[in-house]
Amino acid sequence: MGPSIFDEPLKMATSFLIVLPPLVLYTFTQRWFVEGIERTGLVE
Q1: Are 26 and 33 in contact (CB under 8 A)?
Q2: In CA terms, which of 2, 7, 8, 9 is 20 to 30 Å from 17?
Q3: Residues 38, 34: Cα–Cα separation, whole Å
Q4: Which tens digit of pLDDT belongs to each residue from 1-44?
């Protein structure tokens, strides 16, 4: 069988579903990531 018309949309949907969980996790934990990065530059 040759290439199907569903190959490309299926690949795009799969890649979106793979990227979605880390993206959602980052949106909820962004505050702590930014605070951690800001604190690394502090010198006392």
Answers
A1: yes
A2: 2
A3: 6
A4: 777 888 999 999 999 999 999 999 999 998 888 888 777 776 66
pTM of the model: 0.58
The residue ranges of DSSP E strands in 1-44, in sequence order, are none
Q: What tokens were used for 28?
A: 């909820």
Return left, alpha or beta for 3; rule: phi > 0 is left, psi -120 to 50 is alpha, else beta. beta
> Who's near 19: CB < 8 A, 6+ residues apart?
none
**C-alpha dihedral, 34 to 18 to 9 to 3, nearest 10°:** 140
